[in-house]
Amino acid sequence: MSLAIGLGKYAVGKDVRQDWVIYGLGSCIGLILCERWEGVLGMAHIVLPASPEPDPPEPARYADTAVPFLLQEMERLGAIPNRIVAFLAGGARMLEINGAVGDIGRRNLEAVREELAMRRIRVGGESVGGTFGRTLRWNAAEGLAIVSRFGAADEVLTPVPCRPVRPGGGQA
Amino acid sequence: MALVLVVDDAAFMRMRLKNVLVQDGHEVIEAGNGVEAIEMYRQHRPDLVMMDITMPEMDGITALKKILQDDPSAKIVICSALGQESTVIEAIKSGAKDFIVKPFQPERILDAVKKQVG
Amino acid sequence: MSELVEKRFKITEVSMTQHEAEELPNLLGDASTPVCASFFQVRGELPGFLLLVMPVHEVAALLEPLVGQGEGEMADSAIGEIGNIVGSAFLNHIADHYHIYAAPTPPQVFRDMIGALMGSLAAVLVSGGKLEVPVVRTQLTQNEGVLSAFLLWIPESFSLDELRQSK
Q1: Residues 6+ apart with CB under 8 A from C14
Q2: What's the number of domains chain B is made of?
Q3: What's the predicted TM-score (pTM) here?
Q4: Chain C CB within 8 Å of residue B56 CB
């Protein structure tokens, strides 16, 4: 049984055994933060680049609050900040809308990258841009971030499985 | 036998209209939006224009007005799904000879052509 | 052309419900379901969005008699035009009832997971301050009952209560 993470939602956990999935990423960004010492995982379904207020009720919805919020929650579970690798999917340009919105996908991507760079979090793999939808799955058993699309092959974002390295950290 | 300019942004609809018209012995040229329609009209002076309304670049009502400005004798029939009252009235007021609402039967198209070009 | 007329979609159900914009991806079922959709903005006095959505596996049966194949440029053009015809008929009905003007833009055609399309639309709505939206959903079936499609209308300038009162 997988956990589906809807728009503006997130999940954090340690020693996660269940797959976490974000279905149908268009302009939204699916962000995975994988911590490789204690085995803490965070995942957020980001919708927009910037929060209109400093402390929004749904922090995972906005890139500028999602990143610090996920990190804060992961640290609560014992995550070591400089052992965190990020994986990204989404940020596509799906809809051409007349109006002020612009390319939300691109703005989301830029915002997420900026928040990660500010905190020196390395992006280990990404599948972003284009004009098509993606599903981002955290395969818990293998420690892999996998992107699937309609009508094309799966893409593995994790060059090596992201697994905790602390002796006794997490359990295989 | 008439030269008909079919204007619609949907290639599918242009194909359907073309089939109906060609089968009835007419010659068909095509345009994908209002801007192309004006250009094609100037170049070819067709006997009749079948004009969609909802198109990118320039809509059909605007194109109709511009073609008529250039050539007040132009015969333009609107062929559109947008058959609401205010739109039909505007089209006719702007000089459309007829307004055919999609989806249409082939006979409706051929009757309109016959009426306009004999 | 007669096929398009004979296989005219029949409205089998209309519902009006309020939804969180962020729940739109799950509105018609699984967010990962691949669909063919035509998407329109609505201009005029009832601004909002309009979509005709069909499951991908049902589309070939609809399109093959019309264009000879279930995929490709002509097939996508047909999907866009079917959406235009059905969507315009819907808007015409409302426009004439209330003596207003409401027109769709040209279509954008998609073949993709419904979640990607609806999630991207949700982002537009939320960025415009609309966390909740009314959705008028019309289920359409072909005369033979083989194809089921949904026409979704999401008006931006009305709440569900306002819509219900004016009905």
Answers
A1: C136, C137, C138, C139
A2: 1
A3: 0.91
A4: yes
